[in-house]
Amino acid sequence: MPQTGHKFWLHSSAWGLAVLAFINLFNYLDRYLISALIEPLKHAGFGLNDAELGSLMFAFLAVYTLASPLFGALGDRFSRPRLIAFGVACWSVATAVSGFAVGFYSLFAARAAVGVGEAAYGTIAPSLLSDYYPVTRRGRVMAIFFCAIPVGSALGYVVGGLMNAHFGWRSAFFVAGVPGLALSALCLWLRDPPRGSQDHEAAAPSAGPPHGIGSATLANYLLLARNRPYAVTVLGYAAYTFAMGGLAYWMPAFLERIRGMPEAQATVSFGGIVVVTGFLGTFAGGWLGDYCARYSSQAYLIVSAIATLVAAPFVWFALTAVSQTGYLVCMVIAQLLMFLSTGPINATIVNLVPATQRASAVAFEIFVIHLLGDAISPTLIGLISDASSLAAGVKIVPFAVVIAGLIWVWAAREQSRA
Hints:
This protein is an all-alpha fold. The protein has helices at about 5-10, 15-35, 40, 50-75, 80-100, 105-130, 140-145, 150-165, 170-175, 180-185, 215-225, 230-255, 265-290, 300-320, 325-340, 340-350, 360-375, 375-385, 390-395, 395-415.
């Protein structure tokens, strides 16, 4: 008998997408809240230099990266809604605890703990979404889900900047952390459909992951690493994440120090650029990728490669422009083009692997892109800033953008040969 009324809505794909996308917004709000608080923390009496401030993002990403393979393996075997609920509750508590920090090490430890919760959520949610919607709609679905990146990141800048201006930096962590506890309860209402239920072909029995956790799980990840189209796509995503992570972390401080913007204006103005360009770019990329996929199986990668390569010079000009108008125009164009890749690349990743390996595939992707990407770029930029200037440090970003685009061209060739 078909479900009716509120029970149908609670178990619908639309409800699942809405809940997961809304939680993802808080995921990125929390992640980039720290970027809005760099200057207040620098002057909070903890004696932090730029390398240490950059390492706060490393603390989170290191744990997030290392915990992701474990949650990927669990996500391919056990209840995905329950694992997601655990993750959301875990990161929410850790975020609130960050507000009680008394020095560098306590803040470092609290930010590291956030990584455990976000690893559970980040690895499993895309896998669950791929079983809510068919292949032909995944570009758009991933665009909606990952639209939370710009919106949440922008809210992180805005919430962090405004809360610090009115109530101090500690209050920002409390405001960001508490709502997640309620959101974690919503996850328990999500349905967990059979893995591969939305794929055209049923997954072969041998395609699933081994039943044990341990050496068999390692063998599963090694199998993913030998999937050349998938592996090369992830490598390009790592270069992209290096660029986006470094830019997102340091831009409020860059605008304040190098361009002389007031603190609140720096966080809010860059947050405004991110939310508008990210929202438009992410949606446009998802729909464009799905449209082009009608004509080529490599369309998602081709769209991402072209958009990223065209974005690179605009990133450079935005960081080096003398006039405020030049910076603004170039940054808007650069961000718009960069966000075009979000939906297509994440759709590519789940489409290139068997349905029963998708949580593991997303986990492996997270491990690689953060290990080689934004786990190191904020700290590296901070080190260059300490040695020279922040203006010099951010100039490594456009080179990483070019590398990402070129690798995705390579990935498209690998996919065509597979």
